[in-house]
Amino acid sequence: MFQKTNLWLLIAILIAIMGCRGEQGPQGPPAPESPPICVFGFVYGPTGSDTTSSVGINVYLKEFLPEIPLTKINDIEIPAGCFGGNSFCYSEYDLAVNPGDSANLTIGFTKVDGSPGTVWAKGVLPGKFAITSHDTASEDTIMKGDSVTVTWAPSSGASYYFIDFYFYYHYIDTSGNDESFSYSMDTTLTDTSITFPASMLFPNLAEIDSVRYGYGHFDIEAIHGPVLEGGSEGNVSGDGLGFYLLETEGGDLQLTVAGSLLLVQRGENPKERIRKILKEKAMERLGMK
Fold first, then answer.
1. Of 215, 218, 219, which is closest to residue 257 (Cα–Cα)?
2. 17: helix, strand or coil
3. Integer Cα distance of 244 and 253 in angstroms
4. I want to staple 246 with a disulfide (CB 3.0 to 4.6 A). Which of 123, 176, 209, 230 is the partner?
5. Distance between CA atoms of 224 and 205, rounded to whole angstroms?
6. Over the stretch 207-235, which tens digit does the pLDDT of each residue have?
7. Can you tell me the distance from the alpha carbon of 45 to that of 55, in angstroms, rounded to the nearest whole number?
Protein backbone atom coordinates (compact mmCIF):
# COMPACT_ATOMS: atom_id res chain seq x y z
CA MET A 1 0.00 0.00 0.00
CA PHE A 2 1.11 3.58 -0.50
CA GLN A 3 2.90 5.28 2.34
CA LYS A 4 1.50 8.10 4.40
CA THR A 5 2.94 11.50 3.51
CA ASN A 6 2.53 15.07 4.62
CA LEU A 7 0.31 15.66 1.59
CA TRP A 8 -2.90 15.09 3.55
CA LEU A 9 -1.84 17.62 6.21
CA LEU A 10 -0.89 20.14 3.53
CA ILE A 11 -4.27 19.81 1.82
CA ALA A 12 -6.09 20.12 5.14
CA ILE A 13 -4.21 23.34 5.89
CA LEU A 14 -4.91 24.73 2.43
CA ILE A 15 -8.60 23.91 2.77
CA ALA A 16 -8.81 25.59 6.15
CA ILE A 17 -7.11 28.70 4.77
CA MET A 18 -8.97 28.97 1.47
CA GLY A 19 -12.44 27.78 2.50
CA CYS A 20 -14.82 25.80 0.33
CA ARG A 21 -15.88 27.83 -2.64
CA GLY A 22 -16.66 27.15 -6.26
CA GLU A 23 -14.80 28.45 -9.25
CA GLN A 24 -16.41 31.42 -10.95
CA GLY A 25 -16.53 32.70 -14.50
CA PRO A 26 -15.80 30.94 -17.78
CA GLN A 27 -13.62 28.25 -16.20
CA GLY A 28 -16.58 26.59 -14.49
CA PRO A 29 -20.05 27.03 -13.01
CA PRO A 30 -20.50 28.78 -9.67
CA ALA A 31 -20.82 26.56 -6.60
CA PRO A 32 -23.45 27.07 -3.89
CA GLU A 33 -22.98 30.33 -2.02
CA SER A 34 -21.99 28.69 1.26
CA PRO A 35 -21.84 24.89 1.14
CA PRO A 36 -21.58 23.56 4.70
CA ILE A 37 -19.19 20.77 3.72
CA CYS A 38 -16.59 20.12 1.05
CA VAL A 39 -15.09 16.69 0.27
CA PHE A 40 -12.11 15.24 -1.57
CA GLY A 41 -12.36 11.45 -1.59
CA PHE A 42 -10.23 8.75 -3.22
CA VAL A 43 -10.21 4.97 -3.16
CA TYR A 44 -7.12 3.31 -4.65
CA GLY A 45 -7.43 -0.28 -5.78
CA PRO A 46 -5.05 -3.08 -4.78
CA THR A 47 -1.60 -3.03 -6.38
CA GLY A 48 1.01 -5.74 -6.73
CA SER A 49 0.46 -8.51 -4.20
CA ASP A 50 -1.95 -6.43 -2.12
CA THR A 51 -5.49 -7.74 -1.75
CA THR A 52 -7.10 -4.67 -0.18
CA SER A 53 -7.65 -1.08 -1.26
CA SER A 54 -6.58 2.21 0.27
CA VAL A 55 -8.67 5.27 1.13
CA GLY A 56 -7.85 8.95 1.48
CA ILE A 57 -10.55 11.51 2.27
CA ASN A 58 -10.40 15.20 3.17
CA VAL A 59 -13.40 16.94 4.71
CA TYR A 60 -13.84 20.65 5.34
CA LEU A 61 -16.72 22.11 7.33
CA LYS A 62 -17.60 25.75 6.78
CA GLU A 63 -18.17 26.38 10.48
CA PHE A 64 -16.20 24.98 13.39
CA LEU A 65 -17.96 22.02 15.01
CA PRO A 66 -16.85 20.17 18.14
CA GLU A 67 -17.39 16.65 16.80
CA ILE A 68 -15.57 14.76 14.08
CA PRO A 69 -17.79 13.89 11.07
CA LEU A 70 -18.59 10.20 10.78
CA THR A 71 -17.18 8.93 7.49
CA LYS A 72 -18.01 5.51 6.05
CA ILE A 73 -17.47 3.52 2.87
CA ASN A 74 -19.93 0.68 2.42
CA ASP A 75 -20.92 1.16 6.09
CA ILE A 76 -17.28 0.62 7.12
CA GLU A 77 -16.13 3.49 9.34
CA ILE A 78 -12.95 5.19 8.13
CA PRO A 79 -10.84 6.52 11.02
CA ALA A 80 -9.87 10.17 11.23
CA GLY A 81 -6.13 10.53 10.78
CA CYS A 82 -5.68 14.26 11.33
CA PHE A 83 -7.79 17.29 12.06
CA GLY A 84 -7.39 20.97 12.75
CA GLY A 85 -10.24 23.33 13.55
CA ASN A 86 -12.87 22.55 10.94
CA SER A 87 -10.86 20.38 8.55
CA PHE A 88 -10.38 16.63 8.82
CA CYS A 89 -8.59 13.88 6.90
CA TYR A 90 -9.35 10.17 6.95
CA SER A 91 -7.28 7.23 5.78
CA GLU A 92 -7.58 3.48 5.68
CA TYR A 93 -4.98 1.20 4.12
CA ASP A 94 -6.78 -2.14 4.30
CA LEU A 95 -10.25 -1.53 2.94
CA ALA A 96 -12.00 -4.72 1.83
CA VAL A 97 -12.96 -3.42 -1.61
CA ASN A 98 -11.71 -5.12 -4.77
CA PRO A 99 -11.84 -4.06 -8.43
CA GLY A 100 -15.44 -4.37 -9.61
CA ASP A 101 -16.90 -3.76 -6.13
CA SER A 102 -19.08 -0.82 -5.17
CA ALA A 103 -17.50 1.68 -2.78
CA ASN A 104 -20.20 4.10 -1.62
CA LEU A 105 -19.21 7.04 0.54
CA THR A 106 -21.37 8.64 3.26
CA ILE A 107 -20.40 11.38 5.70
CA GLY A 108 -22.66 12.41 8.54
CA PHE A 109 -22.21 15.62 10.52
CA THR A 110 -24.14 18.14 12.57
CA LYS A 111 -24.86 21.53 11.06
CA VAL A 112 -24.36 24.77 12.95
CA ASP A 113 -28.10 24.95 13.74
CA GLY A 114 -27.97 21.48 15.31
CA SER A 115 -29.74 19.64 12.48
CA PRO A 116 -28.17 16.55 10.90
CA GLY A 117 -26.30 16.87 7.63
CA THR A 118 -25.22 14.19 5.17
CA VAL A 119 -23.20 14.01 1.99
CA TRP A 120 -22.77 10.94 -0.14
CA ALA A 121 -21.28 9.67 -3.37
CA LYS A 122 -21.65 6.36 -5.17
CA GLY A 123 -19.03 4.60 -7.23
CA VAL A 124 -17.52 1.34 -8.44
CA LEU A 125 -13.84 0.54 -8.25
CA PRO A 126 -12.77 -0.01 -11.90
CA GLY A 127 -11.85 -3.53 -12.91
CA LYS A 128 -8.27 -4.78 -13.23
CA PHE A 129 -6.56 -4.06 -16.53
CA ALA A 130 -3.03 -3.84 -17.91
CA ILE A 131 -0.88 -2.40 -20.65
CA THR A 132 -0.85 -4.91 -23.50
CA SER A 133 1.52 -3.40 -26.08
CA HIS A 134 4.75 -3.49 -24.05
CA ASP A 135 6.55 -5.65 -21.53
CA THR A 136 6.05 -3.60 -18.37
CA ALA A 137 8.12 -6.03 -16.30
CA SER A 138 11.30 -4.47 -17.63
CA GLU A 139 12.64 -1.36 -19.27
CA ASP A 140 11.39 -0.89 -22.85
CA THR A 141 13.71 0.54 -25.49
CA ILE A 142 12.69 2.58 -28.51
CA MET A 143 14.76 3.53 -31.53
CA LYS A 144 15.89 7.11 -32.05
CA GLY A 145 13.25 8.83 -34.19
CA ASP A 146 10.49 6.35 -33.38
CA SER A 147 6.98 7.13 -32.25
CA VAL A 148 5.58 5.41 -29.15
CA THR A 149 2.16 3.74 -29.09
CA VAL A 150 0.79 2.32 -25.86
CA THR A 151 -2.30 0.11 -25.80
CA TRP A 152 -4.11 -1.33 -22.80
CA ALA A 153 -7.02 -3.67 -22.09
CA PRO A 154 -10.32 -2.00 -21.16
CA SER A 155 -11.22 -1.64 -17.49
CA SER A 156 -14.82 -2.39 -16.56
CA GLY A 157 -16.58 0.44 -14.79
CA ALA A 158 -14.01 3.06 -15.80
CA SER A 159 -15.36 6.51 -16.65
CA TYR A 160 -12.05 7.37 -18.28
CA TYR A 161 -8.32 6.71 -18.15
CA PHE A 162 -5.75 9.10 -16.71
CA ILE A 163 -2.20 8.96 -18.06
CA ASP A 164 1.02 10.59 -16.96
CA PHE A 165 3.85 10.59 -19.53
CA TYR A 166 7.40 11.94 -19.35
CA PHE A 167 10.29 11.58 -21.80
CA TYR A 168 13.83 13.00 -21.57
CA TYR A 169 17.16 12.47 -23.30
CA HIS A 170 20.57 14.10 -23.44
CA TYR A 171 22.26 14.10 -26.82
CA ILE A 172 25.24 15.33 -28.86
CA ASP A 173 24.18 17.36 -31.86
CA THR A 174 25.82 17.33 -35.30
CA SER A 175 28.03 20.26 -34.26
CA GLY A 176 29.34 18.39 -31.22
CA ASN A 177 27.34 20.34 -28.64
CA ASP A 178 25.68 18.86 -25.56
CA GLU A 179 21.90 19.30 -25.78
CA SER A 180 18.83 17.89 -24.07
CA PHE A 181 15.12 17.52 -24.72
CA SER A 182 12.13 16.72 -22.52
CA TYR A 183 8.42 16.30 -23.02
CA SER A 184 5.65 15.71 -20.48
CA MET A 185 1.89 15.23 -20.62
CA ASP A 186 -0.91 14.32 -18.25
CA THR A 187 -4.32 13.88 -19.79
CA THR A 188 -7.58 11.96 -19.73
CA LEU A 189 -9.08 9.85 -22.49
CA THR A 190 -11.72 7.19 -23.06
CA ASP A 191 -9.83 5.30 -25.76
CA THR A 192 -7.61 2.33 -24.91
CA SER A 193 -4.61 3.48 -26.92
CA ILE A 194 -2.49 6.59 -27.36
CA THR A 195 0.35 7.48 -29.73
CA PHE A 196 3.18 9.90 -29.09
CA PRO A 197 4.45 10.71 -32.61
CA ALA A 198 8.11 11.03 -33.51
CA SER A 199 7.57 14.72 -34.25
CA MET A 200 6.64 15.15 -30.58
CA LEU A 201 9.44 13.05 -29.08
CA PHE A 202 12.24 13.90 -31.54
CA PRO A 203 11.42 17.36 -32.92
CA ASN A 204 15.12 18.02 -33.67
CA LEU A 205 15.90 14.61 -35.10
CA ALA A 206 18.09 15.93 -37.93
CA GLU A 207 20.32 17.64 -35.37
CA ILE A 208 20.90 14.54 -33.19
CA ASP A 209 24.23 12.82 -33.72
CA SER A 210 24.02 10.44 -30.77
CA VAL A 211 21.95 10.02 -27.62
CA ARG A 212 24.07 9.80 -24.48
CA TYR A 213 21.38 8.88 -21.98
CA GLY A 214 17.64 9.08 -21.63
CA TYR A 215 14.68 7.92 -19.60
CA GLY A 216 10.93 8.17 -19.51
CA HIS A 217 7.79 6.74 -18.01
CA PHE A 218 4.18 6.09 -18.90
CA ASP A 219 1.70 5.48 -16.08
CA ILE A 220 -2.02 4.83 -16.42
CA GLU A 221 -5.00 4.52 -14.09
CA ALA A 222 -8.65 3.73 -14.76
CA ILE A 223 -10.91 6.16 -12.90
CA HIS A 224 -14.57 6.04 -11.98
CA GLY A 225 -15.85 9.55 -11.35
CA PRO A 226 -15.94 13.00 -12.97
CA VAL A 227 -13.14 14.30 -15.16
CA LEU A 228 -11.27 17.01 -13.28
CA GLU A 229 -11.17 19.33 -16.26
CA GLY A 230 -13.45 21.72 -18.12
CA GLY A 231 -16.81 22.26 -16.46
CA SER A 232 -16.73 19.36 -14.00
CA GLU A 233 -18.92 20.08 -10.97
CA GLY A 234 -18.09 17.13 -8.78
CA ASN A 235 -20.13 14.07 -7.84
CA VAL A 236 -20.74 14.55 -4.10
CA SER A 237 -24.45 14.97 -3.30
CA GLY A 238 -26.45 16.09 -0.30
CA ASP A 239 -25.44 18.90 2.05
CA GLY A 240 -22.22 19.83 0.25
CA LEU A 241 -20.06 19.37 -2.80
CA GLY A 242 -16.80 17.78 -3.86
CA PHE A 243 -15.11 14.99 -5.77
CA TYR A 244 -15.01 11.26 -5.08
CA LEU A 245 -12.77 9.21 -7.38
CA LEU A 246 -12.13 5.46 -7.50
CA GLU A 247 -8.90 4.40 -9.17
CA THR A 248 -7.30 1.18 -10.40
CA GLU A 249 -3.81 1.27 -11.85
CA GLY A 250 -2.98 -0.44 -15.11
CA GLY A 251 0.78 -0.59 -14.76
CA ASP A 252 3.69 1.66 -15.59
CA LEU A 253 6.15 1.57 -18.44
CA GLN A 254 9.77 2.71 -18.33
CA LEU A 255 11.33 3.96 -21.55
CA THR A 256 14.79 4.65 -22.87
CA VAL A 257 16.30 5.29 -26.30
CA ALA A 258 18.32 2.61 -28.10
CA GLY A 259 22.02 3.05 -27.52
CA SER A 260 21.61 5.27 -24.48
CA LEU A 261 22.17 4.55 -20.82
CA LEU A 262 19.32 4.71 -18.34
CA LEU A 263 21.32 6.80 -15.88
CA VAL A 264 18.53 8.71 -14.14
CA GLN A 265 15.60 7.01 -12.47
CA ARG A 266 12.46 8.85 -11.44
CA GLY A 267 12.43 9.46 -7.73
CA GLU A 268 8.70 9.72 -7.02
CA ASN A 269 6.43 6.71 -6.84
CA PRO A 270 4.26 6.80 -10.00
CA LYS A 271 1.02 6.16 -8.09
CA GLU A 272 1.80 8.97 -5.64
CA ARG A 273 2.61 11.30 -8.54
CA ILE A 274 -0.71 10.62 -10.27
CA ARG A 275 -2.67 11.07 -7.05
CA LYS A 276 -0.92 14.37 -6.38
CA ILE A 277 -1.86 15.60 -9.87
CA LEU A 278 -5.50 14.56 -9.37
CA LYS A 279 -5.71 16.22 -5.95
CA GLU A 280 -4.31 19.44 -7.39
CA LYS A 281 -6.87 19.35 -10.21
CA ALA A 282 -9.70 18.74 -7.74
CA MET A 283 -8.58 21.67 -5.60
CA GLU A 284 -8.45 23.89 -8.67
CA ARG A 285 -11.95 22.86 -9.78
CA LEU A 286 -13.35 23.85 -6.38
CA GLY A 287 -11.50 27.16 -6.33
CA MET A 288 -8.88 26.21 -3.75
CA LYS A 289 -5.81 27.09 -5.82
1. 215
2. helix
3. 27
4. 123
5. 39
6. 999 898 888 889 999 999 999 877 678 89
7. 9
